[in-house]
Prior knowledge:
By secondary structure, the protein is of the alpha/beta class. It has a domain at 2-74 and 97-178 and 269-348: FAD/NAD(P)-binding domain (3-Layer(bba) Sandwich). It contains eleven helices and 21 strands. It has helices at 13-24, 37-42, 51-59, 63-66, 103-116, 237-248, 296-317, 321-324, 326-353, 356-371, 373-384, and strands at 2-3, 6-9, 29-32, 48-49, 70-71, 75-80, 83-88, 99-100, 120-122, 126-131, 139-143, 149-153, 156-159, 177-192, 201-204, 210-214, 220-226, 258-272, 275-276, 279-281, 287-288. The strands form four sheets. The chain has an eight-stranded mixed β-sheet. A six-stranded mixed β-sheet has the order 9-3-2-13-20-19, covered by helices on one side. A four-stranded mixed β-sheet has the order 1-12-11-10, with no helix packed on it. A hairpin with a 5-residue loop joins strand 16 (210-214) and strand 17. The model is unreliable at 393-407 (pLDDT under 50). The site of 8-demethyl-8-dimethylamino-flavin-adenine-dinucleotide has 34 residues, from helix 1 and helix 7.
Amino acid sequence: MTSTTVVVIGAGPAGMTVATLLQHSGIDCVVLERSSRDHVAQRQRAGIVETRAVRMFESWGLTDRVLGGVPYDGILEFRVDGHSHLVSDSDGSQGPAARLCPQQVLVQKLTATFLEGGGDLRFEAADVSLHDLTGERPTVRYRAPDGTPRAITCAFVAGCDGDRGVSRTAVPDGVLTAHAFDHGIGWLTVLADAPPPAHPLLAVSRQGFAAHFPRGPHSSRYYLQCPPDDHPDAWSETRVWDALRTRLGDPALASGPITDREIFRLRSLVHDPMQYGRLFLVGDAAHIVSPMGGKGMNLALYDADLLARAVRDVVRGDDDTALRTYSSRCLRRVWNDQEFSHWLTRTLHDAGDAEPFLRNLARARLDRLFNSPASAGAFAELMTGLDPTGRTVTENLPGNLSGVGGD
Ligand code: RFL
């Protein structure tokens, strides 16, 4: 039986951020990851690290180590029936801006930083199970790649193992409340070796929603609205490119080899509270945000920062205030981002193919966004993550949280 301060379960963006920030604070931890290093390093999803998250890494002095990609100019293109509207997320504040940094690049760099610093990261850890979470010293058991059973005792467990992990299922029934929402919308998502757009592009059309995002200098991710129970085989390459050209209003859109495609339902889920005893849920283990608005990974980074700082307060100063309020502070931001993502999801789908009343309401919202500086300012605040719920940890201490969640 070995012993550490924190066992981190999962080596995705949440887990590797918690682990790297703890290491940076001189706090020992062990990361257990079910998959191989190659598998984790190749998982492609998010593409933009929002401004708030870039500044979070900056505050730890880690920006250059862990963020790849290039700075993002903050310009988002909305294309409505082929007509372009550029919206800037610049809020006039000083400091580094968002980064076009694909999720797998962030994870690769966090992993390299943690390992170079002597971090203990155990890939291919099978059958992870959590025990004594309400006691003084929880135990995490697993099997090493050669089948040997192992156990680690710790002061805290960071459950960073995504929506289908084991951390959340270790919590007894009835402790957590799940707030789930199915948007009734499907997206075909396609990765292709094809030129990225000049700006991240969201397109409204009567044929359905479509989007085109950069994922590196020579690759792109595309989204096409489809029925939630559709099958990827129904989408031949020709059909994909034809639909994109129509919905993006760009007959000359360059195609390229498709490297991945899948269909998923747009859904949202929040588990409340994000804590049970000495287990703290982080990122997708606690909440799923529909990808519209690009908040899922960024929320995972937010939780990770709060948890690392809270553990540091306990270990260094015996002050558990931040740890006790971890769940309520995270949930405040989670609901803020859920609302933004839901608003954008409804607006961009309803403006395209909803019945006329809802379509006109959604188009009125877009009209306001394109023409009202106040609307554009509120949008920019949410896109950057610099709205009040995303401000620095010290600005968000408990006094400002009246009526939000519970500890
Ligand atoms: P992850 O990334 O799922 O990582 C969890 C890790 O835990 C491991 N694991 C286990 N390890 C040990 N034992 C077990 N029993 C385990 N079970 C699981 C897994 O192997 C994995 O390594 O969760 P994390 O770290 O919380 O990160 C969350 C983000 O991945 C997620 O929120 C985003 O990808 C969401 N998302 C997007 N977020 C954005 O901010 N911007 C975007 O543009 C964006 N685009 C997307 C997305 C999600 C998508 N999917 C999944 C529908 C686009 C797509 C297509």
